[in-house]
């Protein structure tokens, strides 16, 4: 199917528009709401984010990999998806710290803050929004569907959710939330444009165990974002991003053995 550029990217562009609109509404509310109300909004968003993350994390239970019979066992050994997710997070986290992913993303936020005369918690809002809007199965599966067959339904649903979240985030963090549209365009739009190649690797992404393990690992990262929004502690979620590549790679290696 030969799709136009608009057909491949319309879901992403709608997502960008809703985040921009949500940011604008959040900024309009920011100066009008007492601090205690802004705190309640952020706590509500944090709790819902944790719930969404935990729901996603359950996908790891369906993503076990089978290690075929070896000299140590006559029968195939099933490696639980949670174990694969744990290895992915640990190894990915170590790689993330080595590559200084957290610092580089924060540095990008600081650069944008200086470039556009941002103030306050600009960088914190940029990082939190970028992670929240781009981690999850709706981003990956929705972008593949949009780029491959022009189906933007999943991304439009995601766009509505992101727009609502942007209102809450921008009311507390400010305009930095709006600059997350750059990450949405690069990542989500990039996946949509590369959907043809991805389709040969993931013919049925909704039930592919590699996507399920990415969803589960990503869900735990979303939980981390929620914990950060609640100010319970500081989880270096960006440093864990390499796990989204390490976990499915580990799953693939086990399946080969």
Automatic annotation (TrEMBL):
<feature type="transmembrane region" description="Helical">
    <location>
        <begin position="41"/>
        <end position="60"/>
    </location>
</feature>
<feature type="transmembrane region" description="Helical">
    <location>
        <begin position="12"/>
        <end position="29"/>
    </location>
</feature>
<protein>
    <recommendedName>
        <fullName>DUF554 domain-containing protein</fullName>
    </recommendedName>
</protein>
<keyword id="KW-1133">Transmembrane helix</keyword>
<feature type="transmembrane region" description="Helical">
    <location>
        <begin position="72"/>
        <end position="95"/>
    </location>
</feature>
<feature type="transmembrane region" description="Helical">
    <location>
        <begin position="211"/>
        <end position="230"/>
    </location>
</feature>
<feature type="transmembrane region" description="Helical">
    <location>
        <begin position="122"/>
        <end position="141"/>
    </location>
</feature>
<keyword id="KW-0812">Transmembrane</keyword>
<feature type="transmembrane region" description="Helical">
    <location>
        <begin position="177"/>
        <end position="199"/>
    </location>
</feature>
<dbReference type="Pfam" id="PF04474">
    <property type="entry name" value="DUF554"/>
</dbReference>
<feature type="transmembrane region" description="Helical">
    <location>
        <begin position="237"/>
        <end position="254"/>
    </location>
</feature>
<keyword id="KW-0472">Membrane</keyword>
<dbReference type="InterPro" id="IPR007563">
    <property type="entry name" value="DUF554"/>
</dbReference>
């Amino acid at each position: 199917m030969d799709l136009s550029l608009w057909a491949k990217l319309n879901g992403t562009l709608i997502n960008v528009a809703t985040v921009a609109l949500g940011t604008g509404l959040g900024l309009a509310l920011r100066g009008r709401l007492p601090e205690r109300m802004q705190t309640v909004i952020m706590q509500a968003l944090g709790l819902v984010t944790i719930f969404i993350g935990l729901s996603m994390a359950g996908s790891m239970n369906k993503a076990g990999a089978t290690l075929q019979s070896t000299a140590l066992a006559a029968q195939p050994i099933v490696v639980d998806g949670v174990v694969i997710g744990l290895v992915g997070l640990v190894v990915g986290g170590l790689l993330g710290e080595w590559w200084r992913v957290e610092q580089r993303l924060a540095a990008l936020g600081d650069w944008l803050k200086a470039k556009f005369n941002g103030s306050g918690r600009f960088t914190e809002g940029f990082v939190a929004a970028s992670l929240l809007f781009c981690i999850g199965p709706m981003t990956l599966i929705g972008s593949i569907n949009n780029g491959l067959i022009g189906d933007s339904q999943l991304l439009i649903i995601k766009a509505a959710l992101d727009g609502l979240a942007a209102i809450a985030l921008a009311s507390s963090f400010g305009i930095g939330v709006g600059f997350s549209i750059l990450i949405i365009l690069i990542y989500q739009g990039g996946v949509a444009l590369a959907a043809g190649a991805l389709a040969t690797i993931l013919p049925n992404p909704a039930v592919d165990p590699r996507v399920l393990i990415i969803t589960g690992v990503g869900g735990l990262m979303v939980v981390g974002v929620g914990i950060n929004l609640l100010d319970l502690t500081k989880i270096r979620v960006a440093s864990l991003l390499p796990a989204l590549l390490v976990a499915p790679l580990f799953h693939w290696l086990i399946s080969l053995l």
